[in-house]
Amino acid sequence: MDLQEDKLRVAVIDMYNGEPGQGMRCIREILNQYGEFNKISLEFEEFDIRKKLELPDTSFSIYISTGGPGDPLHSEGSEWDNRYFSLISELEEINNSNFSEKKYVFFICHSFQLICRYYSIGKISLRKSPSFGVFPIHKTPAGEEEEFFKDIPNPFYAVDSRHWQVTEPDHAQLERKGAKILALEKERPHVPLERALMAIRFSDYFFGTQFHPEADPVGMTVYLEEEEKKKQVIKDLGEEKYQRMLRQLHDPDKIMLTQNVVLPAFLDQATGRLKEAE
Known about the structure:
Oligomer: single chain
Number of strands: 9
Largest sheet: 9 strands, mixed
Mean pLDDT: 91
Structural class: alpha/beta
CATH superfamily: Class I glutamine amidotransferase (GATase) domain
Helix content: 25-40%
Strand order of the largest sheet: 2-1-3-4-9-8-7-5-6
CATH topology: Rossmann fold
Number of domains: 1
């Protein structure tokens, strides 16, 4: 980061594989608003890694790796997957070196599952049924201490949209990595299944969520009102829960709060430390 000119370069690694979605729009809006609000010349570039094999170099200060469709196990060994983790390895080397300007990465949903696979942190499996909607996310004791979560309640609410999950954490491996589980999915006392890991601080510089901190009410409403999605949600959850989901989207204490807090807090921490390094 150029302290004199207050320039911040961000790489957005697009994991959507060419499929339409609201995630990229939301990330763009958060970055544009953050730069404008903080009077920072924030420049971001997008890299379609899965469809076009596009990949950023290590010159960016911040990396946001998005959600996306598909099996996070199936891509292992593919060209784009190998390139992606080659970059992650390079960023780790920089962070473990004496180089003062560290590299900050935020992993969202599919990217979160990929990095958990890479680190062998937990079991990655197909869910018994897809998770889709606005759900409570429960902080762990470590999550209560997490800077990115300090301005949201416990539980807080977020958009959860996934067919896959990370469960059964390997606590010995977490300890070796210095990683901390910060949040778990909603409590289901009558369901004898492991709760998914919903947020992990992998290091001082790498952070990830299995939920979508970028999601906003506009995008989710558009998505839910698509005829096929509406039919599917009503079939899976019922009309009453569908209508409740629509109402929750516009509750300022639910996903609007999460969107306003989590990614901006990550950007705050990264920019603050980058300025100190200058």
